[in-house]
Every structure is written in C-alpha cells, then in structure tokens.
Amino acid sequence: MALDFDAVAVGIAAAVTSAAVAVNGQTVTATDFVPDAPTPPHFVVAEFVNEYHQTYGSAGMDHVTVKCRLLTSRGSDAEGQRTLRKLATLTGVGSIPAAIEAARGAPGQMALSGAADDLALVSVTGPRLYEIGAVDFYGLEFSVLVIG
Amino acid sequence: MAKLVFTNVRAFLSGTDFTGVSNKFGFETKYEDKDTTNYGSGGVHERIAGLVDTQVAGAGFWEAGTIANVDDELATNKTTIEPFTIAPTGTAFGAVTYLSQILWLDRKLFGSVGDVAPWELSAGGSWPMVRGAVANSPGTPITVTGNGSGVQLGAVAAGQRLYATLHVLSISGTGGPTLTVKIQSGTTSGFPAPVDQLTFSAATTVSGQILRTTGSAITDTWYRAAFTVAGSSPSFLATIGFGIA
C-alpha cells in the first residue's frame, strides 16, 4: 500500500487525543498540524520525510519519519521542563510515546485505524525552545516511523 | 524501450504475489563451460555449453496470515518445486516476463530491533528460465468463460517446448468457484481453429501451476489463454505467463 500522509498525521493526533494525557492538570490538545497559536500543552504533528518505493509495485511501500512536538508554556520554566522529561518515557500513564504506540493495534493488525501497516517511536529530543508566531514554547520532538 | 528504474517489478510464487512485500528479485542463469579444445583447434580454446543452472534470489518485508503472505507461502511449500513468474516492467498484457519452476533452498527471516521485519530467499531452478510474455494481467478479474488476447510468440521448433505458468491469487464467489485455464495456439491473431496445447488443472484455491509441452514442434505462431469459469458470481485474479524455450 502507499500511505495517505494526511491520514497518518490525523491518526497520530487522534491517538494522543484519545490518551487524554494531562500536563500539570491540563489535558494535552493534539492537532495534526502546527497552529499559528498553540494552546499549551499542545501536541502537534509537524514535518515528515518519506522514502518512496521501499517495495516493488506501482504503489510500493512508504517508509516515513514523522516529526511531532509536544509544546508547553515557557512560563512554567523549570517545572515545565521536568514535566516534559517525564512525558518522554516510553511507557506509563502520561507517556506521549505510549499514547502514540497504542495506535499500532494488535500484532498483525493495521495501525492508525487502518491508515498504516505499523508504526514505532524512533527517538525523542529536547526539551528545547520552539518559536511559533513570535512566542517561545518549551517542547519535545518525537520521531515516529510509519510504514505502509 | 528506454532504460528503466526498477519500481514495478511483479513476482509470483505459486499463489503468492510478492510485489508489495519484495524490494529485490533477480536470477542468474549459468551454463557449464565444457572445454572441447583439441589438436585441430588452431591454438585457441573451443568450448560448448553444458548443463544450465538457474539461481533466484529475492528479499523484502515479512507478512503472515494467509497463503497469500510470504511467511505462509514459504512455510507451506517447503521442499516443493513451485511455479515462478517475474515481470520486470509490470504485468500489463504482453509485457516481458520470465518463468520457471523453482525450489527455494535458503530462507532468512527477521532482523534487528527497529527494522521493518525482513525476509530473504534463494532458490534453484528446476526447469529453464523461459523468456516470454504476460498472457493475463492480475489487475483484471476473470469472471466469465472466454478467451484472452493473443500473443505472437512464434513457432515452437522440434526439441523446444511451450511453457506456461498460472498463478491464482484470489478467488471469490459461491457455489464452488472454479477456474480452468488452457493455453491455445492459432495460425493467426484471430485463432480460426484454436488448438489446445496446455490445460491446467481446475483451480479452486489460491495456488499456482506450471506446464510445458512435450517437445514436439508447433507450427502455429499465436498463443492465448482460454478460461472456463464455474460457480456463482465467480471472480478470479490470476497471472498467466507463457514463453518458448
């Protein structure tokens, strides 16, 4: 199959929304795009890099790495950064990676509600500052591998 | 034909379409080098071709679940000589294809954490690797009894054979859907008096077959697939290839 990149982004955002992860008492808002004015804590699906033709066929397999960011208010400085580090863990309540990997489905089943064959978290970087619309946010950046 | 970036290579082993789960397929055909140099050779080597051997290698991404998946295919048909067809430019009707029957001899499954689960396969040929044409594309369902279009492969000389593969990739319908395929020859593209040259066993499951003629000459130059379909609302996706060697 060939991936519908928009459906992948929507699916990742939906997975985070479904997990209802809370940061300092506020539920994370998740969007499949980077809004002009994020409302922290805000999970956004950002850029992607795809490698086409990973298999034979007119619609050969895609191998896409999707960058996603979790943005928190800069006003929370030290506590905000500590919270982001806790959210980066691969498992447990409040884990963003766990929220995303929950969308893999059962072994052998399609991921992201049928939008992809499978996905896996590859890496996380941060916390660091991100400037969006002249406003700085602390954030983590997740790399998600999606195939299909 | 222009040079080609490999993207839409289609490969079939029995009833499994490897296209979407493979990213490498190739074969190597070698003749034994038999030296016949003698005192009359004028100081240069002379040689003839001996036995021919074909090796096939492939690789891709692992899937399991049904016989249409690579893992089930390789597990079910170990030690079984199977029909193999590869079409380097896709399976449009008449496209170049190579076909043979092969025995997979080595398989490698799985890899490192974080990899897309891989497979590798190497196999040996049990018949020649025959160059031919796609007689039926798997993109068009076979739903009614009828005839495919003709391909002018040429006459079959004495000692040569007509080879054909049938890969039944999916079956739907009720009442015991059955597909019987013949390869017919004719003197012209209109097939005024078609002659049955090869008849595959009736196919009722996802599966593959390969046949060849006896080695007698065939003066007809046109060939086609002919289908007989039975069942209620039957529909089959099948790849058929044929060639002369």
Task: Walk me through the structure.
The complex is a heterodimer of chains A (148) and B (245). Chain A has 148 residues and is of the alpha+beta class. Chain A has one domain: Alpha-Beta Plaits, CATH 3.30.70. Helix content of chain A is 22%, strand content 38%. In chain A, the strands form two sheets. A five-stranded mixed sheet of chain A has the order 3-4-5-7-6. In chain A, strands 1-2 form a two-stranded antiparallel ribbon. The longest helix of chain A is centred in the first third of the chain and has 15 residues, at 5-19. Chain A is globular. The mean pLDDT of chain A is 92. With 245 residues, chain B is mostly beta strands. The mean pLDDT of chain B is 96. The A-B interface holds A 1, 53-61, 63, 108, 118, 120, 122, 145, 147 and B 6-11, 18-23, 25, 60-61, 64-65, 90, 114, 116.
Give the biggest sheet of chain A.
Answer: 5 strands, mixed
Strand content of chain B: over 45%
The class by helix and strand makeup of chain B works out as mainly beta
Q: Which value, in Å, is the CA radius of gyration of chain A?
A: 15 Å
Secondary-structure blueprint:
The complex is a heterodimer of chains A (148) and B (245).
Chain A: H1 5-19, E1 22-23, E2 26-27, E3 29-31, E4 42-51, E5 63-73, H2 77-87, H3 96-101, E6 118-132, E7 135-147
Parallel strand pairs in A: 3-4
Antiparallel strand pairs in A: 1-2, 4-5, 5-7, 6-7
Chain B: E1 10-13, E2 16-17, E3 22-35, E4 47-61, H1 70-76, E5 82-87, E6 96-109, E7 118-125, E8 130-136, E9 146-147, E10 151-152, E11 162-186, E12 195-199, E13 207-212, E14 222-244
Antiparallel strand pairs in B: 1-2, 1-5, 3-4, 4-7, 5-6, 6-7, 6-8, 8-14, 9-14, 10-14, 11-12, 11-13, 11-14
Summarize the structure.
Chain A is an alpha+beta fold. Chain A has helices at residues 5-19, 77-87, 96-101, and strands at 22-23, 26-27, 29-31, 42-51, 63-73, 118-132, 135-147. Chain A has a five-stranded mixed β-sheet with strand order 3-4-5-7-6. Chain A has a two-stranded antiparallel ribbon with strand order 1-2.
